[in-house]
Design brief:
This protein is mostly beta strands. Strands 1, 2, 4, 7 and 9 form a 5-stranded antiparallel β-sheet that branches. Strands 3-8-5-6 form a 4-stranded antiparallel β-sheet, with no helix packed on it. The radius of gyration is 14 Å and the shape is globular.
Length: 106
């Protein structure tokens, strides 16, 4: 029998990040996860230590790596990296939104 806990969201912890490239503070503790829901457009996300973190697309020639891709309509759960307090988000089409829900259990 599987004893894995399911994802348990923090009460009233969901935030919506507006369109464009932004950084938003994560209300999460070390060892927690964050569920990301991308809607409207593909987007990129990057975790960082401060509000200077940016999310970028990889270069067309492959010389520069990019941030993690979330396809429009996808739901992903990430473990929050050590020393992380911020997440940057950038849409590939300058539209769409990203919803963040911190929690624990996966």
């Amino acid at each position: 029998m599987d004893t894995q806990e399911s994802f348990a969201p923090q009460p009233k912890g969901t935030r919506q990040v507006p369109t464009g490239t932004v950084s938003a503070a994560l209300a999460v503790a070390l060892g927690n996860q964050v569920r990301l829901i991308a809607s409207g457009a593909d987007c990129r996300v990057e975790f960082g230590k401060d509000n200077t973190v940016t999310a970028t697309k990889p270069s067309a020639d492959g010389a520069t790596a990019g941030s993690a891709l979330l396809k429009a309509g996808s739901v992903e759960v990430f473990s929050v990296p050590l020393n992380t307090a911020f997440i940057a988000y950038a849409t590939d089409a300058n539209s769409g939104t990203l919803e963040l829900t911190p929690g624990i259990g996966l």
